[in-house]
Write a structure and sequence with these properties.
Blueprint (H helix, E strand, L loop, with lengths): L6 E7 L19 H16 L6 E5 L2 H13 L6 E5 L7 H8 L6 E6 L3 H8 L18 E6 L13 E6 L6
Parallel strand pairs: 1-4, 2-3, 2-4
Antiparallel strand pairs: 1-5, 5-6
Length: 172
């Protein structure tokens, strides 16, 4: 649970997607088996840490939707408001910030794509996580960051406090 006067962002890059059908448009690529495993693991981890979103801002791409569906299958307590945002598909960091400022719930999960999501993640905290892989923001990477604000319209770059950063790449 996020304390009053705070907002929490769970920023997730989609899990590993399949490249085995070259005729598919990039927007329509599904998750591969490794991606499905990592998304399930992410959902279990979020639930175990009580990082359950009340609102989900998700790119309209198939792989981000499937990532959310797998995460959601592991989260039992909360059924969040879900907004599929076409503007998050390959969004820049600035576009992601604009969309985040439209959020209405205290704990928000945003699912997107590189390179925008790695740039956005690097701009949000006052101090970046020490993980050497943070700036790469591999598939399944998830940053949990708190902001001492009353409303998402107040969110500013460089003001967040990192609560957690983990990578869920689904490797055995």
């Amino acid at each position: 649970m996020t304390p009053l006067g705070y907002r929490r962002l769970i920023l997730t890059r989609h899990a590993k997607s399949a490249w085995d059908n070259p005729s598919l448009d990039d927007h329509d690529r599904p998750l591969n088996a490794r991606g499905r495993r990592s998304a399930l693991a992410l959902g279990d981890w979020l639930a175990s840490r009580d990082y359950e979103p009340e609102e989900v801002l998700c790119s309209s791409a198939r792989r981000t939707k499937e990532t959310w569906e797998m995460v959601a299958s592991a989260i039992l307590e909360v059924r969040p408001l879900i907004r599929y945002e076409p503007g998050l598909y390959h969004a820049s960091a600035d576009k992601m910030l604009t969309i985040l400022r439209s959020a209405s719930h205290q704990t928000v999960m945003m699912l997107g794509h590189n390179p925008g999501i790695s740039e956005f993640a690097a701009m949000l905290p006052s101090r970046a996580p020490l993980d050497p892989e943070f700036r790469r923001y591999a598939t399944g990477a998830t940053l949990v960051i708190d902001f001492q604000i009353e409303n998402w319209s107040e969110v500013a770059l460089g003001q967040g406090s990192v609560m957690d950063f983990l990578r869920f790449d689904g490797r055995d």
